[in-house]
């Protein structure tokens, strides 16, 4: 029989479902980040229990495995000293003449729209360990970023 007339299963054409990628390196989080991981696990467990269909359930279970791994490997960071840039710090800085404020957080709690950037982001990496009043290199420019202020952000410490 010609291959053209053979009925192949629909599963042969589906994309394989790989595990969600986990970032390389330590899983540094704020206290809020650790709490959010736990809340997401509870939410996903409830959705898995309420989902009867196999494919949506498998997707939820894949997400659950990701967040469970992130929760187990989470390393809660102590708040940075006042004036120091670190995970959990709210940093006011000047870059290209514009003053901005961000909070440096763990990878899973990053939300750039809210001003929360991951400690692994290039901007955060450039500022980590700096003190208020210092200038740091960024994008191949010496003294590109001036740290105006840094303090522990109470929102991410709870």
Automatic annotation (TrEMBL):
InterPro entries in the record: GreA/GreB_C_sf, Tscrpt_elong_fac_GreA/B_C, Tscrpt_elong_fac_GreA/B_fam
TM segment ranges: none
The keyword Cell inner membrane is assigned to this record: no
UniProt domain Transcription elongation factor GreA/GreB C-terminal: residue ranges: 82-140
SUPFAM superfamilies registered for this protein in UniProt: FKBP-like (SSF54534)
Keyword ATP-binding: no
Domain of life: Bacteria
Keywords in alphabetical order: Kinase, Transferase
Annotated GO biological process: DNA-templated transcription elongation; regulation of DNA-templated transcription elongation
An example molecular function term from Gene Ontology annotations: RNA polymerase binding
Protein name (database record): Nucleoside-diphosphate kinase
Organism of origin: Sphingopyxis witflariensis
């Amino acid at each position: 029989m010609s291959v053209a007339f053979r009925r192949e299963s629909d599963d042969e054409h589906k994309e394989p479902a790989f595990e969600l990628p986990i970032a390389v390196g330590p899983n540094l989080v704020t206290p809020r980040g650790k709490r959010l991981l736990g809340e997401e696990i509870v939410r996903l467990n409830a959705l898995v229990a309420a989902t009867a269909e196999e494919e949506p359930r498998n997707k939820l279970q894949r997400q659950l495995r990701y967040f469970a791994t992130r929760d187990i490997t989470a390393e809660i960071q102590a708040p940075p000293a006042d004036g120091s840039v670190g995970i959990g710090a709210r940093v006011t800085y000047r870059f290209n003449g514009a003053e901005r404020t961000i909070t440096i957080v763990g990878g899973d709690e990053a939300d750039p729209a809210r001003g929360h950037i991951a400690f692994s982001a290039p901007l955060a990496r450039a500022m980590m360990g700096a003190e208020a009043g210092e200038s740091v290199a960024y994008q191949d420019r010496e003294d590109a970023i001036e740290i105006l202020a840094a303090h522990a952000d109470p929102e991410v410490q709870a």
